[in-house]
UniProtKB/TrEMBL annotation:
<feature type="binding site">
    <location>
        <position position="241"/>
    </location>
    <ligand>
        <name>substrate</name>
    </ligand>
</feature>
<keyword id="KW-0547">Nucleotide-binding</keyword>
<feature type="binding site">
    <location>
        <position position="155"/>
    </location>
    <ligand>
        <name>Mg(2+)</name>
    </ligand>
</feature>
<feature type="binding site">
    <location>
        <begin position="445"/>
        <end position="448"/>
    </location>
    <ligand>
        <name>ATP</name>
    </ligand>
</feature>
<feature type="binding site">
    <location>
        <position position="416"/>
    </location>
    <ligand>
        <name>Mg(2+)</name>
    </ligand>
</feature>
<dbReference type="InterPro" id="IPR014709">
    <property type="entry name" value="Glutathione_synthase_C_euk"/>
</dbReference>
<feature type="binding site">
    <location>
        <position position="133"/>
    </location>
    <ligand>
        <name>substrate</name>
    </ligand>
</feature>
<dbReference type="InterPro" id="IPR014049">
    <property type="entry name" value="Glutathione_synthase_N_euk"/>
</dbReference>
<feature type="binding site">
    <location>
        <position position="340"/>
    </location>
    <ligand>
        <name>ATP</name>
    </ligand>
</feature>
<comment type="similarity">
    <text>Belongs to the eukaryotic GSH synthase family.</text>
</comment>
<dbReference type="Pfam" id="PF03199">
    <property type="entry name" value="GSH_synthase"/>
</dbReference>
<dbReference type="GO" id="GO:0005524">
    <property type="term" value="F:ATP binding"/>
</dbReference>
<feature type="binding site">
    <location>
        <position position="153"/>
    </location>
    <ligand>
        <name>Mg(2+)</name>
    </ligand>
</feature>
<feature type="binding site">
    <location>
        <position position="423"/>
    </location>
    <ligand>
        <name>ATP</name>
    </ligand>
</feature>
<dbReference type="InterPro" id="IPR016185">
    <property type="entry name" value="PreATP-grasp_dom_sf"/>
</dbReference>
<protein>
    <recommendedName>
        <fullName>Glutathione synthetase</fullName>
        <ecNumber>6.3.2.3</ecNumber>
    </recommendedName>
</protein>
<dbReference type="GO" id="GO:0004363">
    <property type="term" value="F:glutathione synthase activity"/>
</dbReference>
Amino acid sequence: MASDLDYPPQQVESAITDRLVEVAKDWSLAHGLCVRPPPTVIPAQAHPGNILATPVPVTLFPSPFPESCFKQGLAVQRAYNELYASISQDEEFLTEMVKQIGNSDDFIQKLWDVHLRVKAEGYVQSISLGLFRSDYMVHQGSAASSPGIKQVEFNTIASSFGGLSSQTTALHKFLNKQEYGYLGRSSTSSSLNLPENTCTRGLAAGIREAFKVYGPSKSSNAIPKCVIFLTQGGERNIFDQRHLEYELQAQASDDRMPIFRLPFSEIGDRTSLTEGDKRVLQYRPPHRESDTYEVAVVYMRSGYGPDDYSGDSAWNDRYQIERSAAIKCPSVLTQIAGTKKVQQVLATPASADSEPPTLHRFLKPDAASNTKAVADIERTFTNIYPMDTSAAGQVARKIALDPQQCQSYVLKPQREGGGNNIYRSTIPEHLKKIPEKNWDAYILMEIITPPPVYNMILRNGKLEKGNVICELGVYGTCIWDQNKATAGGANAILWNESEGYLLRTKGDKSEEGGVAAGFGCMDSCALVKDI
């Protein structure tokens, strides 16, 4: 279908291209499809009031994406939500994961130490919120086989770009309706299958539901409740977060829900816990320090990497959040559940025929409701290996150090945020620079190589043309109650939804794909039968 349409078109008159660029730039600025400009584009001293914005890098056309793969990603998301909710409740399993990587990954060990400190005194909040995103690339084993998706990673903290993704879909729908007709009959609006994208609305609904589940004020003297967005200082991707914030406020129009942005570095200055066993988290906004709010939900858009923790005081701040009565998104255990090590253990086959796969620990295939979920999840797994001293790890180490074999692999640390991975020929040299005892903090993944498509990327006012590859992210929201799970109840999961998608695109020669890290761009799907 894509080839029949000659889509995206490669031969476009320069006057029409110029018009598309101008319309896309103005639409993006008018609708908040923006980021704060990087210093390489506009020096910080040129806008000391932090008042400027620049369009986010975006494709001029929605990229062709197999409809079957798109539907596969949406269909499996609820099963993935349930899986990671179950993992976050399994302390025994997570203990083993931390043992395997904690000695060589100080950040993960310190997160675990926060959990142990809270556990020693007892948790006061059993409910957790997950705003998840599962990322995939299209894989086709042979020309004769049907395409499917293979998982790149599963994100349990700061799963970003929901706000900008909805706006990107809206931009492409606008261009399709108003502008693509100038390109000729092959690319008119009737030719493109552009799916709806409700991720901003869905993610906001998850936070809204957690706010409801928190219940009435737990303070001795009832005070207004609020939601905290825990942020990073100097955040360039602020408009993505604002779209979610504004949608959340719109959903709460009949019932006021104060929302405040709190930099991670100001937790100690702006929050406190009430005395006694309730440990209510209270917040004092800087613009009205006489007011006090009870924090019902903490939504973390920071705290996912070591750079957010400047010292012991920052770790004590994370401890204060974790031990409080606020519903965390995510809790420390949910954050650890999202490490690459967990992904590797889930995907690695059992070492013995008599030993069930780790996935079956959380979703038992003998349960009628889980049989399809297990099969659907297993179909998304790709080849992932540990880098420890196990038999599988020794195989991985041999591959990683071999100048030829390593060309098909990526070495991944237990980090979020983009720009941390080691690719192909650079793997052996990287490993030689770090102590061998620290290798087990990594996992080795076979690189997924999706078929490239042609597109044009508008980045910092300049147009890049050529082949690109796409990465699909599917959002999910989940709320669960640890107490019900501990008691063996069947209703530990209180909320479980699949909530729209993200498409990120990069040049087919680029390794990393993070938009915020400066590698990829925003995109949306034009669904096709094949590519």
